[in-house]
Specification:
Blueprint (H helix, E strand, L loop, with lengths): L6 H10 L13 E5 L4 H12 L5 E4 L4 H10 L8 E4 L2 E4 L1 H9 L3 H5 L2
Parallel strand pairs: 1-2
Antiparallel strand pairs: 1-3, 3-4
Helix pairs in contact: 1-3, 2-4
Length: 111
């Protein structure tokens, strides 16, 4: 297992990373802010992994700039996970699951 990147490295990666693209060019860029012990984070990551999509995870247990950036991007929300698809704020695990139940998540993911 690779050692975890520093928080600053993770933020820089998020800012400079191109979208993940499927062969047809339609796969969305998925970003998820998490904490190590968060069961809701695990649930959201499991849902996304089960769909076979890649996502960029930023672990914010230590706080600092990555947490501040998440709060800013999420309109002041401080809970985790906070999920973004193609830069649009989706919300947390419950919102992600609701989109999936409604059949609206797959199109957002480019599936």
């Amino acid at each position: 297992m690779k050692p975890a990147a520093s928080a600053a490295t993770s933020v820089a990666f998020l800012r400079n990373c191109p979208k993940y693209e499927a062969k047809d060019g339609n796969m969305a860029r998925i970003e998820i802010y998490t904490k190590f012990t968060c069961p809701y984070c695990f649930r959201a990551k499991s849902l996304l992994s089960g769909k076979g999509v890649e996502f960029e995870e930023t672990e914010i247990s230590m706080g600092g700039e990555p947490r501040a950036e998440m709060i800013r991007r999420a309109g002041g929300r401080m809970t985790v996970p906070q999920i973004f698809i193609d830069g649009d704020h989706i919300g947390g695990s419950d919102e992600l699951a609701a989109l999936d139940r409604a059949g609206k998540l797959d199109p957002l993911l480019g599936l």
